[in-house]
Design a protein that fits this description.
Length: about 100
């Protein structure tokens, strides 16, 4: 069995409970975007997941048409504090292409 040597700045005995904790602003933005998507009549019945990293909203899931996809992005952009929106929403029936 091969045991790799740790790098000088690695501490294998460190407490693992201090894992990455999301920024409070990101959590606030995520909650506001999710709330706006659940209230708007265009997006409320769609399968949309919201994630936020460094004030960038990431929309993923499946929507019924291009208008709904666009409305979801616009609603996310309108939330105060949002820096950018990554819209990865797919349309119903759209398949991933295999190369």
């Amino acid at each position: 069995m091969y045991m790799p040597w740790p790098l000088p700045d690695e501490n294998w005995f460190a407490d693992a409970s201090n894992q990455f904790e999301p920024d409070r602003e990101d959590v606030r933005i995520e909650a506001l975007v999710a709330q706006r998507l659940s209230v708007d009549w265009t997006t409320r019945r769609q399968q949309i997941s919201v994630a936020v990293q460094n004030r960038v909203v990431i929309l993923s899931g499946v929507v019924s048409d291009t208008e709904t996809r666009q409305v979801a992005a616009e609603l996310a952009y309108d939330v105060p504090g949002v820096f950018d929106v990554c819209n990865t929403l797919r349309l119903t029936g759209q398949r991933r292409s295999r190369r």
